[in-house]
Every structure is written in structure tokens, then in C-alpha cells.
Design brief:
Elements lengths: L1 H9 L6 H17 L7 H26 L9 E14 L6 E9 L10 E5 L11 E9 L12 H8 L1 E7 L4 E2 L8 H23 L5 H9 L7 H9 L10 H20 L2 H6 L2 H19 L4 H18 L7 H14 L7 H26 L7 H27 L6 H25 L6 H24 L13 H16 L3 H21 L2 E6 L4 E5 L5 E5 L16 E4 L5 E5 L2 E5 L12 E6 L13 E4 L5 E5 L5 E4 L19
Parallel strand pairs: 3-5, 9-10, 12-13, 13-14
Antiparallel strand pairs: 1-2, 1-4, 2-3, 4-5, 4-6, 7-8, 7-15, 8-9, 11-12, 15-16
Helix pairs in contact: 1-3, 2-3, 5-6, 7-16, 8-10, 8-11, 8-15, 10-11, 11-12, 13-14, 13-17, 14-15, 14-17, 15-16, 17-18
């Protein structure tokens, strides 16, 4: 199902509903026809895979049709935007306001995007749940400029986010008669409760870690210091910020064990009713409440589904920690949120969970064969080490594919931070909630904040001394990524050490071969006015060629400028030739071994001694790739081929 959903979202065109329906009918009819035929195991497996792949693609197409909503295709503004603030997110240039739009100056009501996100650079005097009027500029959600870059426009499409922009001045609170009706009113009240909780926790948890504590309890990260966010990201501890399986697992686990132990003290009840089932139901309710209070983001919804399947297995007398429960959770997520299959959060969380479950089953079987049962503090510490090691190994391919980096001290940081988070931070947060009616919550919130300060210290240490970490030097090819996913699945599913090692080694070798043979990006000309060039050492350098109004690819956004070439001509050597930046037709008379000419003006298009590629700002974004045979090809992003990549006004699909 994951493969089917990923295939659908990766297609270079949007298939018609009739086409998808015909394929589904044919595959499901064929599978049904052979159900009662005694087929070989391999053919039966092929039928199962075909049915699952078709179901995943069908789920993706269904959600695309059901969630269709207007997206901007041109820049608007400055203009007046009116609506309700639903969330406040942190940003490098200021808080980002999520606004449920009711009106945009000059736009008909039928063309309004459901939500917009606007950066607010000045002091913020409004909160979630308020009706506001903002004077600002709106633009279409940015689309990926290079192959493999993060597809923000697809995420925005399924989130109902039709535009992004910035506020000129301040958003002013407005007044409307009455409250929002129905579900919108409920969402507004929840947003107000979340903000009030975030403010309270940030105040009581202390100045240093108050923003961190507010992010963990309410999902509101607007109080966090950006330096702390960067330290957590560079140290491999950023997963603590996203309310995901770790957080819901701790909340559900604490509630489950507290209720189960508490009910077990009542002898009459414990001897007559299965208290573990009552505790599991209480854990499901608690995790649902935490999901709602934390904003119910996609990653949190996904984590709740996994937690609900886990505790539901206890209610149904099934094994909660099994690959069968893991598969059920994944199927539900693909049905409910098929677009999340393409997100790093989905891939990394399920990879880590699958790896941990497979390791847990192997470890349990090994201990049982040796006659070892139970355990003490030693087993707890071994479990923490195993969790960190397996989690880091399982998520490494995904981190390299999506972010092109591995945190250098990520494993050490997790080994140091997770005991603090598991045994101090999470219990104190739970005790603060339980003792709130007694007026003792501030004591536990203070301890909660102090424990998070220690985690921030670990993050600062790990991020300051590790450099940039391990990098591949270029984007991982899709085929290499798929091979690594298959290798991870084989490692989890195949029995026998030697069989597993040989299969994983063969698949990993294929992944390495695909990496070596794939084209290498040599030059990327960005609409931001920057040229990103791969130098002979293998690293990517940034050169300014003009003043652009676009955004650089997310993959290159943290690369500092090597040289400003707007006033001088820069000659940058690559493995395929020299790239001349800032050149115009009158300044370049001989090309020699030149590969490309880049300028904000019209560069030379012909050379006396060599043909070259020439680009101006009007051509951006565009990339040059070199193949293993020495050929160079040009690649431009397409627009209009999928619903989440509409062409802007005046732009045609290449």
C-alpha cells in the first residue's frame, strides 16, 4: 500500500478517475478470481502485492479529489486579509500565523484559499482563536525547484494551505458578532485552550526551557528560542519537538501502568475483571485527549493511530508488540492520510518502529531460549541503548535522503538525553497534570523545566563540537533510496543471521551501484538570485548572480554565500568545466573549457571554440546534471501536471 501511494504521488501526470477506477476493478477482480486457486507461493504473493499497491494508489487518488481546494496562482498584495488565527508556528524571521480565511481584499469568496500562513515580524499582540485583520502580501506555496527537494506545495495542498506570505506592520484584532458555529467554533476554543496552556507552562517551567516545555505539552513552538531549535536539530534530538509516537507512547504507557496498578489494588475488581483492558481503554482516551490538546498535526494523528492499535490489541487479547499490529497501524495511516507516505516523519517513525519491534521479537526469543525472564535496572538500561542504536540505524537512510546529513553526535546525544526525558521529564509532566486540582502542578512543572534544560545543554554540546556530520555530498538517487528501504525490510523480516546478512549485503551493493551511476547535479540556477555549484571537492558552494524574489531549494538553504558576483565576473571550476557567473555577451569573448554562463542580464549564447549552456534570471529555476558518460543534460521543474503544482499566471508548463 505504501508503494502504491508513493507511486501515485510520484507520477509525472495526474491520472483520471476513470483510469484509476479501471485499474482497480481489473486488479481486484483478478485477485478475487484466483483466491480459490491453488497457486504457487510466489504467484500468491504477487497477487497480494498487486492488490495492496492498487489500494494504496486508490487511497491517494481519492484524497486528492476529496481535498481539492483553491490555491493561489499569482502574488496578491499588499492587501487586507481577514480571518481567524488557528495556530502560531515559529519561524526564522518571526512567528508564522495560520489564518482560517474569511475574506481577502479584491478576491471573490469562491476563490479564497481555506487557510494561509503569514510571517509576522513585529511584536505579536494577537493569539489563536482571535479574529484578525492583517495587511500583507500572499504568494502561492513554493514548489520544489530541484528533483528530490521537499515538496512543500503538496503538503500545503492536503493541509488546505492555499498561500503563504508576510504581514506588513501588525495584525490587528477584530470583532465579529457571536462565536463561530459548529466545528469551527470547537476548533477555535481548542486553539484558545492550547494557547493558554502554552503560556502557563512556559511561565512556570522557567525562562531557559519554558518554550521547550510549552512545545511538548501543547504543540505550540512559538515560545522556543531559535538557537535551541537549531541545537536540537543539529544534535539529532529534533524528534523530541514533534509530538509523535515517543510522546504519545510515554503518555499512554504512564496512564496504562498507573490505572492497571491502581485497579489491581482493589482485590474484588482485579479477581473478577481484566483490569489491563480497562487500563488500555483509559490509555486510548488519554492519548486522544493529548492529540487534541497538542493541535492534532499529521504526525500526532499518525502516532495516535499507532498507539490506538497498540492498546486496542491489549483489549482484544492480541500481542501489541508485533509486526502484525505494526502493519495494521500502517494500513490505517495509508487509508486516512496517504500523502504522509511521502513525508520524512511517516518514513522515519515507521522505520524506527518496525526496526524496534523486529529487534524486540528477536531479543525476546533469544532470552527465552537461554531461560532468562524478567530483569531489573540493567535490562532497562540495555533497552535504552538498544532503542537508540536501532532507531539511529533504521532512520539513517531516510535522514540522508531527505536532509543529506547525519547528526555527528546524534547517537551519543540520544543516549544521554533519553533517560532524562523518559524517567524525569515525562513523569513530571504527567504529575503536573494530575496534581493540578491540588495546586501542586507548579512544583512538577519546575522540575519538568529543569530536566529540559539539561536536555538543551546536551543538545548544545552535541551540536557545537560535531561539525556538519556525515554527508553524501550529493542528493541520494531515488533508486538507491528504494533499495535501502527494501534492505531494511529484509533485515526485519528474514530469519537467520547469514541469510539476512547476505540478502542485505546484496541489496546494499545494488544501492551503492545506483548511487555511483546516477547523474550528478553540477549547477543549479535559483530564482533567489543564487547559483549553487558543485566544486571538484564534491561540496556545493553558493554564488550570487542577481537579485531574485524566489526561494532557494530547501536542500541548499543553509549554505552560506561563497562570493557575490553581481559586480565582478566569477570563474568557478567544476569537474565538467568552468562556470562563469556575472558574464554578459560583451565581457566574454573566449569560452575555452567553459560549461555554463550565468548572469542576471543576457549572457553570451555562442562561443567561437565551444558550445556552452547559458542562463539568465528568467530561466530560473534550472539545473545541469552530468552523467557517468560525460554528457550534460538540463532539467527544469514542471508546473500544472499535478493539482498541487499549479502554473502561476503567465507561466506555462515546459
Amino acid at each position: 500500500m505504501c508503494a502504491g501511494a508513493a507511486t501515485y504521488f510520484s507520477l509525472p501526470f495526474e491520472p483520471a478517475v476513470v483510469q484509476v477506477a479501471m485499474v482497480c476493478v481489473f486488479v481486484f477482480a483478478a485477485v478475487r478470481a484466483v483466491r480459490h486457486i491453488d497457486l504457487p507461493v510466489l504467484l500468491r504473493l504477487i497477487c497480494i502485492v498487486a492488490a495492496g499497491t492498487t489500494a494504496g494508489a486508490l487511497a491517494g487518488k481519492a484524497h486528492t479529489e476529496l481535498r481539492a481546494s483553491p490555491m493561489l496562482t499569482r502574488t496578491l498584495g499588499p492587501t487586507m486579509i481577514e480571518g481567524w488565527i488557528t495556530n502560531i508556528e515559529p519561524g526564522e524571521k518571526g512567528p508564522r500565523l495560520r489564518i482560517d480565511v474569511t475574506a481577502i481584499g479584491g478576491e471573490p469568496s469562491t476563490a479564497l484559499p481555506p487557510e494561509v500562513r503569514m510571517t509576522h515580524t513585529l511584536s505579536l499582540n494577537v493569539e489563536p482563536g482571535r479574529f484578525v485583520r492583517c495587511w500583507g502580501v500572499l504568494r502561492p506555496p513554493p514548489q520544489p525547484a530541484v528533483a528530490g527537494d521537499y515538496n512543500f506545495s503538496r503538503q500545503a495542498y492536503f493541509d488546505g494551505l492555499g498561500a503563504v506570505g508576510y504581514v506588513q506592520g501588525r495584525c490587528r484584532g477584530g470583532a465579529l458578532s457571536g462565536e463561530r458555529p459548529g466545528l469551527d467554533g470547537v476548533k477555535t476554543r481548542i486553539a484558545q485552550w492550547r494557547r493558554a496552556l502554552a503560556i502557563h507552562v512556559a511561565d512556570k517551567a522557567g525562562l531557559e526551557a519554558g518554550g521547550f516545555a510549552a512545545a511538548l505539552t501543547s504543540g505550540d513552538r512559538s515560545f522556543m528560542n531559535q538557537d535551541n531549535v537549531e541545537a536540537l536539530r543539529n544534535s539529532g534530538l529534533a524528534h523530541l519537538l514533534a509530538i509523535s509516537g515517543l510522546h504519545l507512547g510515554l503518555v499512554g504507557g504512564l496512564v496504562y501502568f498507573a490505572v492497571r496498578r491502581g485497579l489491581a489494588l482493589w482485590e474484588w475488581l482485579a479477581l473478577r475483571y481484566p483490569v489491563q483492558k480497562v487500563a488500555a481503554l483509559a490509555a486510548i482516551v488519554a492519548t486522544a485527549a493529548y492529540m487534541t490538546l497538542s493541535g492534532a498535526s499529521i504526525s500526532t494523528q499518525r502516532a495516535f493511530i499507532m498507539a490506538a492499535v497498540f492498546f486496542g490489541a491489549i483489549v482484544l487479547d492480541r500481542s501489541p508488540l508485533s509486526l502484525r499490529s505494526f502493519a495494521i497501524a500502517m494500513i490505517l495511516v495509508v487509508i486516512l492520510e496517504p500523502q504522509s507516505v511521502m513525508s520524512p516523519g511517516f518514513q522515519m517513525s515507521f522505520a524506527a518502529t518496525g526496526g524496534l519491534i523486529a529487534s524486540f521479537e528477536t531479543w525476546t526469543r533469544h532470552r527465552r531460549l537461554r531461560g532468562i525472564y524478567g530483569g531489573g535496572i540493567g535490562m532497562v538500561l540495555k533497552s535504552l541503548v538498544l532503542t537508540s542504536v536501532v532507531g539511529a540505524a533504521a532512520t539513517a537512510p531516510f535522514a540522508l535522503y531527505h536532509f543529506d546529513r547525519l547528526a555527528p553526535w546524534g547517537l551519543a546525544a540520544n543516549l544521554l538525553a533519553m533517560p532524562i526525558f523518559t524517567f524525569i521529564s515525562a513523569p513530571c509532566a504527567g504529575l503536573a497534570l494530575v496534581t493540578w486540582p491540588l495546586g501542586l502542578s507548579n512544583v512538577f512543572l519546575g522540575i519538568f523545566g529543569m530536566s529540559l534544560e539539561r536536555i538543551q545543554d546536551i543538545a548544545a554540546w552535541a551540536s557545537s563540537g560535531g561539525g556538519e556530520g556525515f554527508r553524501l555530498g550529493r542528493a541520494m538517487p531515488d533508486l538507491t533510496f528504494v533499495c535501502l528501504i527494501v534492505a531494511l525490510a529484509v533485515a526485519c523480516l528474514v530469519d537467520g543471521i547469514w541469510k539476512r546478512a547476505s540478502l542485505v549485503g546484496a541489496i546494499a551493493g545494488s544501492a551503492a551501484g545506483a548511487f555511483v551511476l546516477s547523474p550528478v547535479q553540477v549547477v543549479h540556477v535559483s530564482a533567489s538570485g543564487d547559483a549553487f555549484i558543485t566544486v571538484p571537492e564534491g561540496s556545493v558552494e553558493r554564488y550570487v548572480y542577481g537579485d531574485g524574489d524566489g526561494l532557494p531549494p530547501l536542500r541548499f538553504s543553509d549554505i552560506s554565500t561563497a562570493r557575490d558576483c553581481r559586480e565582478v565576473v566569477c570563474r568557478v571550476p567544476t569537474r565538467n568545466g568552468i562556470v562563469i557567473i556575472g558574464a554578459s555577451g560583451g565581457e566574454t569573448t573566449s569560452c575555452g573549457d567553459t560549461l555554463a554562463l550565468i548572469s542576471s542580464r543576457e549572457p553570451a549564447t555562442e562561443c567561437a571554440d565551444a558550445p556552452v549552456w547559458s542562463f539568465t534570471a528568467a530561466d530560473a529555476p534550472v539545473s545541469l546534471y552530468a552523467t557517468v558518460t560525460g554528457n550534460v543534460k538540463v532539467s527544469r521543474p514542471r508546473c500544472g501536471h499535478r493539482p498541487w503544482t499549479p502554473c502561476q499566471e503567465g507561466e506555462g508548463s515546459p
